[in-house]
Amino acid sequence: MAAMLVFVVADGATDEPGTRLASKQIENLSTGSSLTVDAEDEESKYIFHHFNARFRGESCRWALAYAGVQWEDQRASLALFPTLGSTLPVLEVNGKNLTQSTAIARYIAKKRGFAGRGLWEQAEVDALIDYIVIDAIAGLRAYPEAALTGDKAKVTALKEQYTSVGVTPFLKELENKLRSNDGGQGFFFGPSATLADIIVVNFGDEVLRMKPDVLESYPVLREHRNRVHDLPGITEWIANRPDTLL
């Protein structure tokens, strides 16, 4: 069964790219997926609340798209970031709210069967996710605020420092880690994609927005990125998502 995605930009949102997509419906042709489906999901309503931005929340959107569930993408204007920054993202499921982007993404992956096969692999997946969201992204903590305040000098300095020096050890480690499974011809763990693959590639995409050639010396990561982009649901999401500042 095809899933339906609805973009909804909150009243008063002024971020132009998102406003253009208000109330637009996009059919996600992700049929044929081998992901787990349970009876509860047939009745569940997923609403993802985040800013009109990618950054922390985009991996959750990729997970929802790959899961093939019916969901809504509710976006608040970035102008509200100073007051709402610590409260979003939120995943609303049948009236219950779940916070924190990594917890949200893990919940979706566990529900739909791409959190890892068995307890050991799930722990390995979680370890790699933590490596990204705790360690690798640490050097970018100041970037969103600098971009939102229009501090161009600080934005440029942060980009140059991170893409030329800060991210290098993480990319090397990820390249080696990927090679350790099937010579880097597939995914990080086992024969199929897990949430770790989604979060690693989403992280890489954000760095590529800062420096388009940052993966030039990492051919295995480049090919892996293509494989994840080609996953059902994610392909359609990337093609139709709004262009945003962050």
Report on this model:
One of its GO terms (molecular function) is glutathione transferase activity. Residues 44-116 form the GST N-terminal domain. This is Hematopoietic prostaglandin D synthase. Residues 118-246 form the GST C-terminal domain. InterPro entries: Glutathione-S-Trfase_C-like (IPR010987), Glutathione-S-Trfase_C_sf (IPR036282), Glutathione_S-Trfase (IPR040079), Glutathione_S-Trfase_N (IPR004045), GST_C (IPR004046), GST_superfamily (IPR050213), Thioredoxin-like_sf (IPR036249). It is a single chain. With 246 residues, the chain is an alpha/beta fold. The protein folds into 2 domains: 46-114 and 233-240, Glutaredoxin; 119-230, Glutathione S-transferase Yfyf (Class Pi), Chain A, domain 2, CATH 1.20.1050. Helices cover 50% and strands 13% of the residues. It has 12 helices and 6 strands. Strand 5 (90-93) and strand 6 (96-99) form a beta hairpin. The longest helix has 18 residues, at 118-135. The radius of gyration is 18 Å and the shape is globular. The protein starts with a strand and ends in a 6-residue tail after the last helix.
